[in-house]
Amino acid sequence: MKTNITKIFAGMFCAATLFSTTSCIEETFPTNAATEDQLGSSAKATEALLWAMPAYVNNHATLSSDYHFDWGYGSQMHIRDVMTGDMTVVSTGYDWYSTWANNKNQGENSANTQFIWNYYWKFIQTSNNLIAAVDSASATPAQLGMLGAAQAYRALAYLDLAQMYEFLPNDVIESVNAAGNDVLNLTVPIVREGMTEEEARNNPRATRDAMAAFILGDLDKAENNIKTLEISSKIIPHLDVVYGLKARCYMWLGDYENAKNYARLAIDNNTGHVMSQDECLNTASGFNTATPWMLASTTQKEDDVVKTGIINWASWMSPEAQYGYNAAGATSMIDAAMYARLSDTDFRKLMFKAPEGHALESKVSYIDAEWGAELPEYAAIKFRPNEGNTEEYSVGSSTSFPLMRVEEMYFIEAEAAEHIAPGEGAALLADFMTTYRDAEYSLPLGVDVIDEIVFQKRVELWGEGLSFYDYKRLNMSVTRGYEGSNVDAARQFNTNGRPAWMNFCIVKTEKENNSALIDWENPDPTDAYTPWAQ
Asked: pTM of the full predicted structure?
């Protein structure tokens, strides 16, 4: 049944090695044949700059095609997910994400570190190109709308970076680094449009407050400009996404009043809808179409990541695809304890393979029942290959995956409300759950309400790269070692609060080109934990 896999994987092997490449400083100042004035004067040219942003979401080979984790923003999502306690992957030589899951090679000299850094700064460069090219004073309404979309995309990228690189207290590593400098609450440098190379080469890490002001400044401008955007595609941000990004940002800052208000604005203005049970569980279109979502990424058969056959979203996130890395054995699974906590009456539990003998075992629907029988217990079948096509990668991998869904906003609203007025968030959670997910839901007795809201949010957004931020923001422990765990023994780390590995390191090549970063690095968290021993 798996004969087609061996052809695709012939000659491949996994290796985590040191990697040296040019710094993002050099890449932030590209040489273009057209000037910014020329690009900004033409609506068509501006639109070309705009489409470069969603295209870059699926960029292949930011570092090298030799690294099979190098396939764009979806890979960044997968990296964050395997660093939590919610997703685990069957241990295999084909798992290119094992170093992140195993807390290996997280320092400044690693290709893993370089990939994350380079990817995001090239992402920001695509936004800066448009922002620099459009003069808001003379732009047409159409161009202002595109400017707003670029400002929203840039805010999304910086918000990700800020949350990943900000050093926060943890259970094993102090914020004072080897040079004696305290890096607590430092994020990343801010590279603005029009910045000179001299400025960029002496550009310190921004504080949490400075970064928040920059991100919210972008979102304020986007909120004003994006209202004239004439493009309706779900791969371009619109006003609902701007509100959603503000809600995410205010949650990061612990400003719950604003988080609640902007989450509600995102809900009231959203361009999608809460996914129904049929939409979620549909074997042909489940979580592979952008229609219900606020912001999505979509690939076509002509895209490089699809043409690779195996270095794309479906390969890594669709265990039912018979041609990808999941099919080769690196199967993505939900954590067993997380699965057990989820009520059997909640239909979302049917997005994962039930263990043998479980009451739901016969109720899980597969595209191919024979293939489904071979999947490991707890395998995640949430993300179906396009059209339910499990064998033709040109079809199955021409799929969409979500970057923002309105469901997230309901959970942000509920958590923020509970922080402000205990009991209000519990009521909001119960209303969402009974209306959309589990008609029999009731708040478990004796449970911490914030923990329950965040748990249900983690279930809802499983595999979407967002739970990492809640773990880090709320100082949540990662618990992988316990009786009955389905996590590989080498990855069974139990932390006391947020893990040290959630404070990402800046790459050495960046420090070599930006003197302000020298001696201001986050301490390397590699091998900071010992696996749980039964």
From this structure: 0.93
Burial label, 44 (beta-carbon count in 10 A; 0-12, 13-18, 19+): exposed
Alpha carbon distance 506, 522 (integer Å): 7
For the beta carbon of residue 212, count every other beta carbon within 10 angstroms: 20
Angle at which helices 239-253 and 208-225 cross, to 10°: 160
398, 299 in Cβ contact below 8 A?
yes
3-state secondary structure of 210: helix
Distance of alpha carbon 369 from alpha carbon 365, whole angstroms: 8
pLDDT for 247-256, tens place per residue?
A: 999 999 999 9
Q: Are the beta carbons of 74 and 62 closer than 8 angstroms? A: no
- Nearest residue to 381 (alpha-carbon basis) of 283, 299, 315, 485: 283
Q: Read off the pLDDT of residues 98-108 as tens digits, 9 standing for 90 and up.
A: 999 999 999 99
- Tens digit of each residue's pLDDT (9 = 90 or more) over 458-501: 999 999 999 999 999 999 999 999 999 999 999 999 999 999 99
Q: Give the closest residue to 404 by CA, choosing from 316, 504, 272, 512.
A: 272
Q: Whole-angstrom Cα distance, residue 346 to residue 360?
A: 11
At 338, list the tokens: 């997380």
CA distances from 341 to 30, 31, 67, 85, 452 (A): 50, 54, 36, 14, 10
> What does the alpha-carbon distance between residue 227 and residue 215 come to, in Å, rounded to a whole number?
19
Q: How far apart are CA 454 and CA 449, in angstroms?
A: 9
CB 379 within 8 A of CB 330: no
- Count other C-beta atoms under 10 Å from residue 187's C-beta: 25
Say if residues 145 and 225 touch (Cβ distance below 8 Å).
Answer: yes
Which amino acid appears at position 293 of this protein? W
